[in-house]
Amino acid sequence: MNKDSTLTCEILITSDLHGHLGPIDYRTGEKRQKGLATIASLIKQERSHCQELILLDNGDLIQGTPLAYYAATQYSDELNPGIALLNELKYDAAIVGNHEFNFGKPLLNKAIQDSKFPWLSAGL
Ligand SMILES: [Zn+2]
To answer: How close is the Cα of 2 to the center of ligand 1, in Å?
Structure first.
């Protein structure tokens, strides 16, 4: 790139997903336009026209819904579904939210180890 070139970069941030991964209301089971699955469509749309896109999660990912609770308490040795989705969507980094500690440091450490992106210790 020469000095007259301009680089435009988009930054997309998700925050406080709290285990809302699928496009459903976890209390009723009804389909809803919410959750990371719905956001994934928007992320893919942005990626299609922006090559320099930075994708971040601002914390509070692995705690909140019954799905998150079930994954953390019954399948703690498995890949956390929130981490699986962030890996699949090729997040560039995630930030540790206060609720990442709800199920203890071993679960958080496993989530970090299973991530294909770095974790940061500063909130946005
Ligand atoms: Zn939160």
So the answer is: 42
Q: What is the DSSP letter of 80?
A: P
Q: Ligand 1 mean position to 17 CA, how many Å?
A: 7
- Ligand 1 centroid distance, CA of 46 (Å): 25
The full set of domain ranges for the chain reads 10-120
Q: Are the C-beta atoms of 95 and 52 separated by less than 8 Å?
A: no
H or E element in which residue 120 lies: strand 119-120
Centre of ligand 1 to C-alpha 59, Å, is: 7
Assigned CATH class of 10-120: alpha beta
Q: Give residue 105 CA to ligand 1 midpoint distance, Å.
A: 18
pLDDT at 72: 97
pLDDT digits (tens, 9 = 90+) for 41-75: 999 999 998 889 999 999 999 999 999 999 999 99
